């Protein structure tokens, strides 16, 4: 299994390369590219939120708590500043302590969180939340897809580290990192699948995002940006 720093490095490199390509093509602004790069970095460490009491997990939930507070501060339209501050504190504490404690009780490491299904759920959650704080439909979907990109890179990297090329052997952890769903935690997987469907319908209609992805003009603009 790759360590925390390696996961963050790979997600930062790949996410940075793709986001700067979009920036160079004029598809996103410098600020937008920075958000996409940060999204890939967050996705790159999300599969380790099930590590329990480790320092890496604490740091991840601190970061997620800060992101939740910023999202509330951006999207909250309370009548006064004190209500906005209170909402930010509740969002931070809810993610930092309540969500972390609940997650540690439900899942085990390299279980349901280490699945493509969980990555898709994170994608849809991020897209849904961003759409509520005045992100455009396409931009919300693209940002969520960068989270999914970092998440998927994490799973692939852990699977690669399960193969010892030098020693010509496969470690016992092989097959536990990159999987569509976790069959051991079936009920949790079923609930996660249900949540994925719910957040898909809470997210904005993906039609414009799909058109953006399949439109050859998008890739032509990226190619022109490097010429």
Terminal CA distance reads 39 Å
Give the overall silhouette. Answer: globular
Poorly predicted regions: 164-170
Main structural class? mainly alpha
Beta-strand content: under 5%
Question: Major sheet: size, sense and barrel closure?
Answer: 2 strands, antiparallel
Task: Give the beta-strand count.
Answer: 2
- Domain count: the total is 2
User: Widest sheet: strand order?
Assistant: 1-2
The helix content, as a percent range, equals over 70%
Q: Could you tell me the mean pLDDT?
A: 78
Order of helices and strands: HHHHHHEEHHH
Rg calc: 18 Å
Number of helices: 9
Overall description:
With 227 residues, this protein is mainly α. The chain has 2 domains: 4-51 and 109-225, no CATH class; 52-108, no CATH class. The chain is built from 9 helices and 2 strands. It has a two-stranded antiparallel ribbon. Strand 1 and strand 2 (169-170) form a beta hairpin. Helix 5 packs antiparallel against helix 6 (137-160). The radius of gyration is 18 Å and the shape is globular. The chain starts with a helix and ends with a helix. The relative contact order is 0.15. Mean pLDDT is 78; it is low at 164-170.
Task: Write a short abstract of this structure.
This protein has 227 residues and is an all-alpha fold. Helices cover 70% and strands 2% of the residues.
List keywords for this structure.
2 strands, 227 residues, 70% helix, mainly alpha, 2 domains, two-stranded antiparallel ribbon
Can you lay out the helices and strands and say which pair or pack?
Elements: H1 4-24, H2 30-45, H3 55-75, H4 81-106, H5 116-132, H6 137-160, E1 163-164, E2 169-170, H7 186-202, H8 207-214, H9 216-225
Antiparallel strand pairs: 1-2
